[in-house]
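Need tokens for this chain, all 266 residues.
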Amino acid sequence: MHQVAAQSNYSLKDEIKAYWSVRAETFDTQPGHEIFSEAERAAWHELILRHLGEGKSRRALDLASGTGVVSHLLDDLGFSVTGIDWAEPMLERARAKAKSRGQAIRFLMGDAENTMEADASYDIIINRHLVWTLVDPKAAFAEWHRVLKPGGKLLIIDSDFVNPSLVSRLANRLADALSRLRRSSARPHQPPALAETHKSILSRVYFSKGARAEAVAALLTDAGFSTISIDTNMRTIHKTQRGNFTFLKGLERATQHRYAICAVKA
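Here are the structure tokens for all 266 residues:
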């Protein structure tokens, strides 16, 4: 069932949780979510190493861990990993992956904005495509600062999904036109009802006008983080993903405002 019901006692956070619970079914079939080649895996490893270094058994917390894609990247690099997600269908898939690989990754149900983890308990916090969904990023960043050890690092990987470049807008228009010609306006993994839910959620989150890296970095400074760097060099990752996208989708993705932000708890 793809419809996410609207209820009067449903909060925005409840709606986000329900949306991702439904999306879990096809999450790992989608390029940009799951990893489809060793070259792409190596590109993600390189990005993580560039900002966080080797794991060396350091404790890492993967927030909004989904099906465990990023958790497994960290595990590959020698981190001791805990993943937190609040969608049980995502966690089921994440645990199944860890079991199939024989890896001891801990996956817990929880809220990324209120982790319930102990003070100063992690060396690393990482998340991918979480920040744009946050209802209260100020509270979330303060929470992440609390959970990190002194000297610990936060790595945010995200994008502005609201303000496409001119190239992206043209690519989207052409893709829509081609889709109409094929008499199919919905992608297999994103039926119309879910697409409308996604659009509705995006219009009501904190970064409804777009999660620009500079705005995220400013909030991190307010939360007490220091040594904040913005890395927009995602070219290697985009290059390895290109073969899994249509030409137009690949063009759109390569021209989006995508970034990694690394920050330190002083």
